[in-house]
Amino acid sequence: EKSGYAHFMLKEIEEQPRAYRDTLGGRIDEQDKSIVFPDMLMGLEQIRDMEQIHLVGCGTAYHAALVGKTIIEQLTRIPVEVDVASEYRYRQPIITKKTLVIAVSQSGETADTLAAITQAKLSGARVLGITNVVGSSVSREADFQLMTWAGPEIAVASTKAYTSQLIALYLLALYIGQSKGSIEQSLRAELIDKLNKLPEQVQSLLANTSQIQRIAEQIAAFKDLYFMGRGLDYMVAMEASLKLKEISYIHSEAYPAGEMKHGSLALIEEGTPIIALATQEHVLEKTISNIREVKARGAYVIGIAFEGNLELAKAADEVIYVPRTDALLAPALSVIPLQLLAYYTALARGNDVDKPRNLAKSVTVE
Ligand code: F6R
């Protein structure tokens, strides 16, 4: 039931603080500032044995996996590859007994993701399923499972499932890091404290949507728009672009900010909207110089940055601010205004937000 909301999508966006809390719930030992996974059953030996990780998923789950790669590599120093599930199975990936294959799937029923699991198991790898549906095919096929507790997701466009996948991947990266001893106790404690703050920070982002509604009205008239960012901001840009195109039907693409000048700058015309994510402050100067490049060609730039980032305010035409957190955790906040932007843009265009044309919630055919 929509419980008073106009659409399931808006209800599900607003459920995110609860979904974060439930996905974190019972998995943090606050005394010890460590991660506990009573439900996952992956032993220390298996973790120490692991030489590489492959993450697979489709669509939004693939985008969560991309964020997963960055955080797992940073916190564990285990090499991680990410594949779209439908590509993985046909490219003869190098899978060994020391590979952990992580399948990410909200429904746990996506045909391509299930086929990737079969492939992985035939090659002797262990499989961890990250799913949102208890008893789903992915959770049954996998050797280990890590549930996201987003609750049923009805809208075709995935929102709370994506962010819950991010939370699960943060916990997993910390867990592997603590098991391998690759992460300092102090950094672990700091990240755990910051994870615990996310639900409240998301709540504050949901409380004020007037700026986003105004920008949505503006961009609804355009045929094309672009997202750009570096590092984790680029990963979120890809998800934001998918969300916008699937429900607003506006053509959009996401680019690594530094790539624009290698071809795509040619697309920029007077007034073209560009959403520039700039939460990754170790590359802020670089991103700002990319913003200058697109502005010089006439783009209208909407920045996404942490509160207090005045440099971006000077470089962009306007900025949507998100509460400050660790750079690694930024995707769990920066995606929220972009989900809302997709929602309000689709609404402004009079589209069926919960059931976009040509799409199904669960893709059980190849
Ligand atoms: C986009 C969306 C899809 C799904 C994809 C995978 O908003 O929802 O891209 O993410 O079809 O579905 P699951 O996660 O159920 O495997």
Automatic annotation (TrEMBL):
Location of the SIS domain: 43-182, 215-356
Reaction equations catalysed: D-fructose 6-phosphate + L-glutamine = D-glucosamine 6-phosphate + L-glutamate
Entry's Gene Ontology molecular function annotations: glutamine-fructose-6-phosphate transaminase (isomerizing) activity
Predominant localisation class: cytoplasm
List of catalytic residues: 361 (for fru-6p isomerization activity)
Keyword annotations: Aminotransferase, Cytoplasm, Glutamine amidotransferase, Repeat, Transferase
Superkingdom of the source species: Bacteria
UniProt entry tagged with the keyword Transferase: yes
Name assigned to this protein: Glutamine--fructose-6-phosphate aminotransferase [isomerizing]
Species annotation: Paenibacillus agricola
Taxonomic lineage of the native organism: Bacteria, Bacillati, Bacillota, Bacilli, Bacillales
Shown segment, full-protein numbering: 244 to 609 of 609
